[in-house]
């Protein structure tokens, strides 16, 4: 299993922006390479193999797909546990459809679950189908993650896309049901990550760029946390929650590697 401390790594805003690796990312990954570690993403749109290819294209090395856990996979696994052989109706990107198709059967007429994830697919017809499955058949509403928006870099320009939180909201409003949420800061994704690493909250450090998801969710479970201010939460921004402070709060991954070395976290 390697060294003692296990690392859960958020990706966007920590390791890269768009398709550009952030300074110190490769060195950080080299520094933790002997430790158990897993790349965690709330974004269900791309399958793990595609995520691995992107990371490699950015110069971040060859990362086995088993080291990448997306909310699409975590959602499929959760649904299988709730109801083996489940039937579903899904709205979202191809990563979500691929993960669900491996575990269950698509059935817009007799679905047990209406699953919403990021990406295209939401329109009047899909909303109508989902609402009626929930109201008439008692299907449960499931959201891969709660993020209201997603940052996107299109031909070098930044833009904001609707996140799963925004896409699942019309289903919740129309049915007056609250979705089960799989991704950060809810505990399910972290629990599946620990299962995959055969680890415990005490042994884990979560590294992320968002106080409200990455850090809050991990701290609630009793993990140590490291905030890297290279994404949504810039240097100088005041910490929002006095009760849940990260164990490390740094401006870059270079600073985090140094801080981990100093604290003895990288010792085996
Ligand atoms: Mg992030």
Describe this structure as you would to a colleague.
The protein has 268 residues and is an alpha/beta fold. It has 2 domains: 6-42 and 185-263, Rossmann fold, CATH 3.40.50; 75-181, Rossmann fold (3-Layer(aba) Sandwich). Helix content is 36%, strand content 22%. It contains 9 helices and 15 strands. It has helices spanning 25-31, 48-57, 71-82, 94-103, 124-137, 164-175, 187-197, 211-220, 253-263, and strands at residues 6-10, 16-17, 20-21, 37-41, 68-70, 87-91, 105-106, 113-116, 140-143, 149-154, 157-162, 180-181, 204-208, 224-228, 248-250. The chain has a 6-stranded parallel β-sheet with strand order 5-4-1-13-14-15, sandwiched between helices. Strands 7-6-8-9-12 form a 5-stranded parallel β-sheet, with helices on both faces. Helix 2 links the parallel strand 4 and strand 5. Helix 1 (25-31) runs parallel beside helix 9 (253-263). The mean pLDDT is 95. The structure holds magnesium ion (MG). Magnesium ion is lined by residues 10, 12-14, 208-210, 231.
């Amino acid at each position: 299993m390697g060294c003692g401390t296990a690392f859960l790594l958020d990706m966007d805003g920590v390791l890269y922006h768009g398709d550009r690796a952030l300074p110190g990312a490769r060195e950080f990954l080299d520094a933790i390479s002997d430790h158990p570690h897993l790349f965690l993403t709330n974004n269900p749109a791309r399958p793990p193999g595609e995520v691995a290819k992107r990371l490699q294209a950015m110069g971040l090395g060859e990362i086995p797909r088993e080291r990448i856990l997306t909310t699409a996979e975590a959602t499929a696994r959760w649904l299988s546990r709730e109801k083996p052989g489940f039937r579903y109706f899904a709205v979202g990107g191809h990563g979500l459809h691929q993960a669900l198709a491996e575990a269950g059967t698509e059935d817009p007429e007799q679905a047990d679950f209406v699953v919403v994830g990021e990406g295209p697919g939401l329109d009047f017809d899909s909303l109508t189908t989902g609402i009626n499955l929930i109201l008439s058949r008692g299907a449960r509403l499931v959201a891969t993650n709660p993020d209201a928006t997603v940052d996107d870099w299109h031909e070098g320009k930044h833009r904001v896309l609707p996140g799963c939180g925004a896409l699942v909201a019309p289903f919740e409003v129309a049915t007056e049901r609250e979705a089960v949420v799989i991704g950060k800061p809810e505990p399910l994704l972290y629990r599946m990550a620990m299962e995959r690493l055969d680890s415990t909250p005490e042994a884990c450090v979560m590294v992320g760029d968002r106080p409200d998801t990455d850090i809050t969710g991990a701290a609630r479970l009793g993990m140590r946390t490291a905030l890297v201010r290279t994404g949504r939460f810039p240097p100088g921004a005041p910490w929002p929650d006095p009760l849940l402070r990260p164990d490390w709060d740094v401006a870059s991954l270079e600073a985090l590697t140094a801080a981990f070395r100093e604290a003895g976290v990288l010792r085996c």
